[in-house]
């Protein structure tokens, strides 16, 4: 099977400081990769390099496109990459306001992404938006409300609906449950897990929360100082960590 994404030797420097270095991995269709590590370990830098939000200094991010097969997305033109970002790729930000248009209604936020891929039929767009609100457990009655009137958990669910409505094949998620209350996090995680399985999504999830990867990720990469220090199946890495840093990460959670 061809990997959906092949990451080869990604490197990003901020002046003399290493953001991330020598990161390589393959992601297969339907697979969820978790990236964990403490603050400053390079998780967000890596995710933003992969998604093309940050320019990498070295490496390749090869995506198996529908039209042309494997293509290095870092060599794509800006319009090509933007189109990918609207169709086969999606990006869920930690702060919903970074991924939503706060002055546009909930239905409009979902509909906008459909229009960006060429849907023009108002009735269809509204019906699909309402369907997606239901799928992320937001009442149809809220379709004309702006996200500013939503709780943090609802905003995050709306951001997820906006991202998934076009049926992407690869979703990048940056701390998707960060900053939410514990009970809200649990509900969101359940929802995400259901959607990922149902849609057969591939995803790359950055988090410092090992419970998130335990629940969502098939595989795990542990980062420290911009490098991947350990990688493997999630349960294997968490239950039998080999690297001293992973052991510390796992044991510090158990002690809480
Ligand atoms: N814009 C920037 N300019 C300079 N250095 C940066 C910049 N962004 C990140 N860094 C540095 O790159 C390294 C990796 O940071 P990064 O934000 O990717 O880590 P992280 O694991 O995502 O942390 P957090 O969980 O706190 O977001 C750190 O040393 C950080 O100080």
From TrEMBL:
One of its GO terms (biological process) is organic phosphonate catabolic process. GO terms for molecular function: ATP binding; ATP hydrolysis activity. Residues 5-250 form the ABC transporter domain. The keyword Nucleotide-binding applies. Keywords: ATP-binding, Nucleotide-binding. Pfam families: ABC_tran. SMART domains: AAA (SM00382). PANTHER family: PHOSPHONATES UTILIZATION ATP-BINDING PROTEIN PHNK-RELATED (PTHR42764:SF1). This is Putative phosphonates utilization ATP-binding protein PhnK. The lineage of its organism: Bacteria, Pseudomonadati, Pseudomonadota, Alphaproteobacteria, Rhodobacterales.
